[in-house]
């Protein structure tokens, strides 16, 4: 395959920020003025994990005068970070940027943007938030079939009746896809059923049902099955449509399709950063936290020590293997679900039996590979979904958006674009080797993904050329075991499967008074394993901590997702119908 593989070791890295210019002294608009917690002891907080959840918790606590130490095993930013590829910088240019997966900031995200406004960035009136740029379109690419390009903006009109809802959403689907009227209106009605369902039905009925069964995909057209059943689930939660929770997918549909005027959105429906994630967001964030007095320590949490109903210490091992027991007044667990559930001893579970359900939560892989190109691509002015690709690929050509970090100024100076690709299905055989991505070597993964991209994009014009491929980089968390002939993944993703809501814990339980949970597996309003979910969970955990500490500091702001007020009377009616064992009134 043309192009060389760019690699990076998996040693523990805690990258200090490269100065992003002289930071403004004042906190950006919307910040909480840093204030001391209530006088006295009890202000030390150990935040276990330095991903988005951990950094959010540290930010909120530090602004409120707490003494915060963050313990991170590998790299600050977690799955959201970008990864500098060692050895790629030449003649004084910085290294090329790889990443776990491309960043995506939908307009209905509210918690992450609120934090971004409070991270100063030189020349930006609204801090890091001003580094968000809108993607004006999305492309749905089909192999040997016409592709669909959808404008990512407001559509239609607001509705006043359920019939208006069906007509508006159905028309938008029909005109922007190759779907027939009957399928489009049918799906609009299924979305109407969800949007008019009361909370009790959403959590008690729809969370128990897979998305495929909810939309009746088996009885609809192939176009319906591919776009509205398979693609929606693999893109959002990296899950198969026969496993994904209707609660999760329906909630996302309510935000993407059920809000045509983007009411209460923070910004455009599809946004991304104008440069590499670390330069445009993570490094300035870490700088801000250091300014607030947050301490960062390299270390992996291996266990929690219990004294009665309190955590008395956390066992942390550094990169050299040296262990220490970390003391604090409060502990915020911001490690991912697959790590957190290894910390729950029988003694901890006896105090918080609700944590036992975490052992049944499902994780799988949604991981990125970047192709560095010698020529700028002209695929789409936004994200691309390769609808029928075996590995459920999505991509973004980053060069067109990176005015903050021009690719021409990185690496050896010959790279003009970066096609960042997410692989959402690691369990289906590919088209070249007949193996799943988990069973392929890294070179085979690169060849396979490149072939799947070309099969979709080059069937009408040669949008990808082998000669343009400079090199590629696969997320360093994916490691090949030659003996097992299989990859492992240090950064799997929580999958919101049917029935998983009942298995997920709340951020705090008084039975274990000084432990607070801030991972994206915690029950949240957004109900999706995302940066937004991590941020919301962290804010919830901090508010609970402030309650326990008796702090008089302002509580973290929490946002709710949009629900059409026009449909509220029908949700109220559905409360009585669900209690009586009756279906939703629109559920024909």
From TrEMBL:
Signal peptide (UniProt feature, chain positions): 1-31
Gene3D superfamilies: FAD/NAD(P)-binding domain (3.50.50.60)
Ranges where the Amine oxidase domain occurs: 52-545
Keywords from the UniProt entry: Signal
Magnesium is among the record's keywords: no
Single GO MF annotation: oxidoreductase activity
UniProt key word Endoplasmic reticulum: no
Domain of life according to the entry: Bacteria
Name used for this protein in its record: FAD-dependent oxidoreductase
Organism whose genome encodes this protein: Nocardia yunnanensis
């Amino acid at each position: 395959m043309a192009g060389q593989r760019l690699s990076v070791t998996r040693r523990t890295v805690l990258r200090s920020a490269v100065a992003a210019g002289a930071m403004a002294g004042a906190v950006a608009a919307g910040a909480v003025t840093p204030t001391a917690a209530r006088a006295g002891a009890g202000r030390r907080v150990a935040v276990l994990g330095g991903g988005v959840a951990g950094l959010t918790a540290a930010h909120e606590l530090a602004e409120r005068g707490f003494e915060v130490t963050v313990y991170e095993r590998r790299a600050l930013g977690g799955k959201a970070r970008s990864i500098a590829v060692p050895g790629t910088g030449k003649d004084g240019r910085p290294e090329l940027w790889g990443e776990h997966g491309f960043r995506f900031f939908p307009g209905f995200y509210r918690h992450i943007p609120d934090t971004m406004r409070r991270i100063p960035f030189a020349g930006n009136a609204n801090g890091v938030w001003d580094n968000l740029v809108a993607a004006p379109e999305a492309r749905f690419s089909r192999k040997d079939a016409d592709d669909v390009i959808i404008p990512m903006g407001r559509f239609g009109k607001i509705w006043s009746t359920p019939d208006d809802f069906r007509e508006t959403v159905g028309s938008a689907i029909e005109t922007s896809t190759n779907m027939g009227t009957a399928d489009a209106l049918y799906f609009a009605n299924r979305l109407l059923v969800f949007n008019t369902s009361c909370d009790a039905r959403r959590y008690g009925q729809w969370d128990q049902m897979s998305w495929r069964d909810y939309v009746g995909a088996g009885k609809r057209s192939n176009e319906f099955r591919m776009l509205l059943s398979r693609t929606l689930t693999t893109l959002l939660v990296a899950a198969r449509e026969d496993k994904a929770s209707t609660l999760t997918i329906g909630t996302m549909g309510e935000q993407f399709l059920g809000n045509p005027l983007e009411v209460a959105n923070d910004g455009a429906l599809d946004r991304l950063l104008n440069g590499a994630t670390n330069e445009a967001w993570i490094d300035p964030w870490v700088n801000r936290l250091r300014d607030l007095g947050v301490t960062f320590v390299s270390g992996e949490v291996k266990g929690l020590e219990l004294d009665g109903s309190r955590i008395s210490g956390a066992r942390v091992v550094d990169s050299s293997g040296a262990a220490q027991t970390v003391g604090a007044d409060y502990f915020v667990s911001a490690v991912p679900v697959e790590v957190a559930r290894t910390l729950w001893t029988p003694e901890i579970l006896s105090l918080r039996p609700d944590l036992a359900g975490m052992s049944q939560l499902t994780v799988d892989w949604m991981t990125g590979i970047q192709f560095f190109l010698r020529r700028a691509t002209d695929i789409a002015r936004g994200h691309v979904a390769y609808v029928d690709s075996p590995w459920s690929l999505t991509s973004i050509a980053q060069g067109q958006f990176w005015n903050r970090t021009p690719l021409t100024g990185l690496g050896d100076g010959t790279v003009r674009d970066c096609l960042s690709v997410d692989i959402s299905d690691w369990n289906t055989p590919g088209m070249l080797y007949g193996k799943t991505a988990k069973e392929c070597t890294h070179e085979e993964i690169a060849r396979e993904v490149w072939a799947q991209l070309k099969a979709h994009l080059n069937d009408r014009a040669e949008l990808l050329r082998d000669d343009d491929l400079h090199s590629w980089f696969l997320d360093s968390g994916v490691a090949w075991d030659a003996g097992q002939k299989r990859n492992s993944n240090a950064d799997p993703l929580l999958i919101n499967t049917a029935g998983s809501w009942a298995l997920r814990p709340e951020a705090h339980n008084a039975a274990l008074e000084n432990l607070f949970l801030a991972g994206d597996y915690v029950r949240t309003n957004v109900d999706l394993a995302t940066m937004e979910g991590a941020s919301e969970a962290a804010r919830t955990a901090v508010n609970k901590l402030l309650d326990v500490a008796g702090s008089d500091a302002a509580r973290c702001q929490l946002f709710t997702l949009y629900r059409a007020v026009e449909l509220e009377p029908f949700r109220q009616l559905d409360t009585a119908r669900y209690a009586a064992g009756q279906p939703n009134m629109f559920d024909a």
